Input
Amino acid sequence: MKPKKILNANEISTILHRLSFQLIEDHNDFSNTVIIAIQPRGVLLANRIIKLLTKEFNDIQFGLLDVTFFRDDFRRSEKVLKANKTKLDFSIENKTVVLIDDVLFTGRSIRAALDAIQSYGRPKAVQLLNLIDRRFSRELPIQPDYCGIQVDSRLNQIVKVCWEENDGEDSVYLFKNKE
Amino acid sequence: MNNLSVNHLLGIKYLNSKDLKLIFQTTDHFKEVINRKIKKVPSLRDVTIANLFFENSTRTKISFELAQKRLSADVVNFSSSVSSVSKGETLIDTVNNIISMKVDMVVIRHPSPGASVFLSNNVKSCIINAGDGTHEHPTQALLDAYSLKEKIGDLKNKKILIVGDILHSRVALSNIYAYQKLGADVKVCGPKSLIPKYIESLNVKVETDLLKALKWCDAVNMLRIQNERMSESYFPSVREYVQQFGLNKEILDSLNKEIIIMHPGPINRGVEITSEVADSEQAIILDQVENGVAIRMAVMYLLASKLY
Output
C-alpha cells in the first residue's frame, strides 16, 4: 500500500511560520521561556522553530531532553530502550517551558517528559508544541498548546515526519499499516 | 538496537565487544543523570534486587546500592556474618529462599571463584557478579576501562600495564579480558611468585622490571597485595616488595611522559603506591569510583530490560 502524503514542504514551511508567530505572541522576548526538544524526533522540528525565532530574538534558551529512563514501557517491550543525549545547561526554575515533539500520539512520551523535567527544577508552566496531533489515539489526558495539524488515524497506522536534513525533503506521510 | 548478548553478568569473559560498547554508551547517559540535581530515575521501580555479600566490601557494596536506589529499584541487603549461612545453610538454599520472596535480580560477592557462575546454573534469577574469589570482578573492569577511555579515548592499540598481585586478583583477570576485547595491549608486572602460570595463554606478556614496564605503557593499574588470600609467603618482605614494585614520584618523574594511574581500591598507601602519587593529577582513582555508580546503573538497566 502506497503511503499517503499528508504535508509537503510548502505546507510544512507555512505551519512552522505560524507556530513561530504563535510562540512570539505568547512569550514576548523569550526571557522567561525555555524551549526543550524531546529526543530524538523533536530535535529537528525544534531546530527549525529556533531558526525562525532567532531572526527576531537572540539568546533563546534551548535544550534537549531524553525521556528514556522515565518511560512506562521499560521491561514491557522486547527491545531495549536506548537513551539519547540530554543537554540542559540552564535553569528551568520559574520559567515557562515549551516542550517540542514532532508527533503527539498516545501522550506517553509527554507524560515521561513531564516527569523528567522535574529533575531539573520547578517550571512556572509547561506547554506543548507538536507538528502532528493524532487526536483519536490518546491514552492520557494530554493536549498540545500549539499544533501544526490534526490527523485522524488508526492505532495500527504510522505517521512519519521526514526532514530535509535526514530524508532529503520536508514531508509527512501516513502509512496504512505497520510494516 | 540489540540488547546484551548475556542474561547475567558473570564475567567479562562472557561479554563481546558490542556488549562493552552498549554498556559504555548507556553509562554516558547515567553519568549525566547522577550529575543532575535530582539524581533519580524511575526505570527500575518494579524491580527488586538482593545484594548478597558473603565477603567484605565498602566501595562495591555502596556503589551497587546507590546505583540501585538511583534507578528506583527496591533493595534488600544481606551479609553472611549475620545470616543463616553460619547455621549451615548451602548457597543454593540461601539464594533460592531469597528468590522465593520475589526478588528479580541478585548481586553476589563470594570468596569462592566461580560462585556466581555456579548460582546462575542452579537458580532462576538474574545474577550479577560483584567479585567471586580470585576469578572475576566484571563491574570493576568495566568502570576501569570506561574511566580510562574518558581520559585517553579509544583503547585500541593502547598499552596498559597491571602491576602487583596478579595471582590473587579478580580485578586483574577481568581487566585483562576487558582491555583485550577493546583492542588494547596488556602487560602484567609483579614478583614471579604472584604471576599466575597460565598468564601467557591469555596472550599477556610478563615484565618483572617495573621501570621498563612503565616506560612501555600509556596507563597503569596498581593492585593491592591481597594478604587475606595468601596462605603462604609469596615474597620476602613488604619492604622489599615496595622497593621493587612500589609506584613513587621518583620513578614517575624519571619517565619522559605522563601516564594515567589507576587503582581499584582499597589503597595500601606506602605499599603499592605512595600517597604523593595516589593524590596526584595523573591519578584517576576517584573518577573511577564516580564512574562505578554509572556503570552499575547501566549494567542493571540493561539486564533488567531482559526480565519479563
